[in-house]
Amino acid sequence: MRLVVLGGGESGVGTAILGKKKGYDVFVSDFGEIKNNYKEVLLLNQIPWEEKQHTEELILNADVVMKSPGIPDKSNIVKKIIKKGVHIISEIEFASQFTDFITIGITGSNGKTTTTMLTHHLLKQGGMNIGIAGNIGKSFAWQVAENKFEAYVLELSSFQLDGIINYRPHIAVMTNISPDHLDRYNYDYDLYIEAKFRITKNQTEDDYFIYDDDDEAIVKWLSENKIRAKKIPFSLIKKLDEGAYADEQNITTHINNEEFTMAINELALEGKHNVKNAMAATTVAQLMRIRKETIRESLSNFQGVEHRLEKVLKIQNVQYINDSKATNVNATFFALDSMNTPTIWIVGGVDKGNDYSELMPLVREKVKGIICLGVDNSKIMKAFENVVDVMIETASMTDAVKIAQRMAEKGDTVLLSPACASFDLFENYEDRGKQFKNAVQNL
């Protein structure tokens, strides 16, 4: 069996290693450059590869192709593979056929990283030998090849779910749905929603689907489509007989006739969206039979996620917050919603078809100045020029942070929450967040 891997990054190299171990004839092809650390791994494992090109005669003879999530279906080589009738799958699909261990799959437009890391933390503290993979850390395929864990928590993007045929998580979590990556779905929101719901497509009556019952898009889809998994909702606004809900003081879960309650002010994470993330993770932990005391302790000592509403420093009584992971409008909505002080907002980057109108009420109420950080800021300037008094354009993180410091007064917050992808000025959102933190530390 010939396995061709498109993309020599984390998921590609992990798939190549697992494929080689399982007896496939493996070839890795990357249209860009492969990083040196991955080249070394491929050489060490005697896996042939190429970079800066796709050689068709070495690719189109594949029995199966694993496509890295970053490569769009519109690319020429992908079109040719499809025309040839060769199966294209995701790393998650490829790796899942080689493990019988249960997986917990977590998706959503926002909150999935936090929920994935929090769920992993709860289960690990509860004594499970559990791996974490997907969009995060070492690739799932690589970990399956190493065979160290007895279960996995996977953060799954819509791109990873696109390439699923038989993959079936025992527990699926959907944190929310809002328009994101529409450029990859022909600007059709329904196609993006369908991609997200592939997470439950292969689930059976023995599996669980945990979801946000306050989310219009999720509730609408569930009312129009039948799923086999047992549905467990969570909500901030309604009291549920089965599932999880919150009032002003507490979160409460009712799962399999077991009740769990915890005071919201004891949660390590702040903000309404994190109450939801905590409810989702707690529901998983209860389904996995983790002790209530362990759940309570773990929710109160969780460290949070880098680049997600991360408090960097307080300088002259101004709080600097790194929310570089906010790559869409909905994520920035959560960030602005959790601000309790006048805010200087650093925003901008590669726009993925953003509609900024839903941010207007929050910007009016909380934002005193906007710093646009992008190659092309015209859409943001136009959207907010009549809403705030001060708007400044910049094309470097150092400038953005220095300008923010000059604009800020005691008691203010400087928030990097870009609502856009980072590829115009930065390598990725992590690079953007690190540059922000460095610039703040150098003030």
Features:
UDP-N-acetylmuramoyl-L-alanine:D-glutamate ligase; six-stranded mixed beta sheet; cytoplasm; Rossmann fold; Protein-Tyrosine Phosphatase, Chain A; 20 strands; 443 residues; alpha/beta; globular
Quick summary of this structure?
The protein has helices at 10-21, 36-44, 56-59, 76-84, 91-96, 112-125, 140-146, 158-162, 189-197, 216-224, 272-287, 292-301, 329-337, 360-366, 378-384, 397-407, 429-441, and strands at 2-6, 25-30, 49-51, 64-67, 87-89, 102-107, 130-134, 151-155, 171-174, 208-212, 230-235, 243-246, 250-255, 258-263, 310-315, 318-322, 343-347, 367-373, 390-394, 413-416.
List the helices and strands and how they pair.
Blueprint: E1 2-6, H1 10-21, E2 25-30, H2 36-44, E3 49-51, H3 56-59, E4 64-67, H4 76-84, E5 87-89, H5 91-96, E6 102-107, H6 112-125, E7 130-134, H7 140-146, E8 151-155, H8 158-162, E9 171-174, H9 189-197, E10 208-212, H10 216-224, E11 230-235, E12 243-246, E13 250-255, E14 258-263, H11 272-287, H12 292-301, E15 310-315, E16 318-322, H13 329-337, E17 343-347, H14 360-366, E18 367-373, H15 378-384, E19 390-394, H16 397-407, E20 413-416, H17 429-441
Parallel strand pairs: 1-2, 1-4, 2-3, 4-5, 6-8, 6-9, 7-8, 9-10, 10-11, 11-12, 16-20, 17-18, 17-20, 18-19
Antiparallel strand pairs: 12-13, 13-14, 15-16
Helix pairs in contact: 1-7, 6-11, 6-12, 16-17
Which regions are unreliable across 5 or more consecutive residues at pLDDT < 50? Answer: none
Mean pLDDT: 92
CATH topology of the largest domain: UDP-N-acetylmuramoyl-L-alanine:D-glutamate ligase
Strand content: 15-25%
What is the correct CATH architecture of the largest domain?
3-Layer(aba) Sandwich
Q: Order of strands across the widest beta sheet?
A: 7-8-6-9-10-11-12-13-14
